[in-house]
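Box 3.1 A note on notation
Throughout this textbook, protein chains are presented in two layers. The first layer is the amino acid sequence; the second is a token string describing backbone geometry. Keep the layers aligned when reading.
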Amino acid sequence: MKAGAKTFIDIIEQATDGVSDGQIGSGSRIGVVSFATSATTDTQLITSVAALKNAVDSLTAGGTTNHADAFEKAIQLFDPLSANAKVIVMFTDGKTTAGPLPAPVAAAARASGIIIYCIGLIGTDGIDVDVLNDWATDPDASHVAVTPDDADLEELFADLAANISKTGATNIVIDEVISPDFVITSVFPPTKGTAMMVDSNTIQWHMDELGVSANEGASLEFYIGTLQMTAERNLSMHRSRIPTMKGTLLCFRHRVSRFPARLK
């Protein structure tokens, strides 16, 4: 988790001023809030990369989990009069064990214009994805991500930082290629743009623009199938594990998001 959080900070720094000078630029700032039985503001909204990374390195796991206080402390960091985008990234398994219900606090944050992302790491006690979906900004497909291990977690933090810090995109073409062990059986219309099968293993998704004038996400669902599988196979795409199957159809969702505003 610490490596992923520090990667997030590095990408925001590079994206906001184009150089690695130890300072986050363009009016963007990041703060760190940790939580257990209660929440602690480890840093205010600051620009110092070194100070932020020191705060991350000082984090320790333990105690109960008070999500409501974590949201409250994060909300208090923001200046309500600022025109900058206000973003909370909640890293958790979604299991509250202390404090009041966090859902009303998260709802109030969203109602005030704060964007909430939830990144879940599946631990020994599992994860409550429904809770993460409830707390996060809609649509869930572009604001909630779950990963089973630390390696994928670092990649998720990197993707999130890149999306938050970059402007919207235009003339988007996404080629989705699946393993040759499978075939695409059907493609549903995406939530934005158009998609077509190029061949039995490739889908091409076109969008004129995404996130140019507002925070925006889009998703594409498709089915893949196989006639025979005699041994367990792992399919790396979409971070899914597929057990032994025979004549089974599987549904996958490709999601993409872009955000035009500065982070604060």
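DSSP finds seven helices and 13 strands in the chain. The chain has two domains: 2-165, 169-258.
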